[in-house]
Each structure stands twice: as structure tokens, then as C-alpha cells.
Amino acid sequence: MSIPNEALQQVLQEINQKKVFAEQQLLIIRQQKAARTREDRMLQLTSSEVSSLPADTKVYEGVGKMFVGTPIPDVQKRLKDESEALTKEMSNLNKKEDFMEKTYANSRDALEQMLKGSS
Questions:
Q1: What CATH code is carried by the domain that includes residue 103?
Q2: pTM (2 decimals)?
Q3: In terms of Cα–Cα distance, which of 116, 103, 101 is closest to 16?
Q4: 3-state SS, residue 4
Q5: Which UniProt keywords are listed (predicted)?
Q6: Range of 86's domain?
Q7: pLDDT by residue (tens digit) across 79-110?
Q8: Which among 71, 76, 104, 111 is most buried, taking Cβ atoms within 10 Å?
């Protein structure tokens, strides 16, 4: 039993679209991961700098167009919270990346199988 040409082309086109979509999503996810890695590194550097300051040092945080005096423990807590949020976000991005890599590999394999089968 052979598949009609039109149906075969439609199936190939759908598989190819899935492959291209997964490829695009992988690129976006990898860019997001790189950005989050940079943000995490900045938080770590800021945290280490704030930790090395004497306890009586005045620390200011930017709020809009102004700066507000903030106690060092509050700054450290905010940095820790942001770091934890970034860790969760990176975990989610890793899961998305794994899923998209599997989708891409499956689509590529299905495309190869269809092309081998039609020869």
C-alpha cells in the first residue's frame, strides 16, 4: 500500500514545520539561558561586594530615577530572592530546552524515515 503523493507531501511539510519551530525555539531558549546566566553572575558579584562592606556602610538602591537608602540585610535578602528566582527560571528553561531538543530530534528522525521510505 502506497501513500498518495499529496498526502506524503503534506505529512513531510508538517514534520518539517515542527522541526523548524523546534529549532527556532531552541535558539530563543539558549539566548534566554545566556541572559539569565549573566544576570546570575551579576547578582553573585553584587552580593559578594555588599557582603564585604562594613555593617555601618550606607547602601543605596535605585528606584526609578532616584536612590533610596536601604539597610544591608534588606539588600542581601533582595539579592538572595532574585538569585533563587533565577535558579527556578533556569530550571524551567532547561526543561524546555530538553523538550525542544527531543521534539527537534524526533522530527528530524521522522523526516529521514519518510524520505528513506519514499525512495
A1: 1.10.287.370
A2: 0.78
A3: 103
A4: coil
A5: Chaperone, Coiled coil
A6: 5-117
A7: 999 999 999 999 999 999 999 999 999 988 88
A8: 104
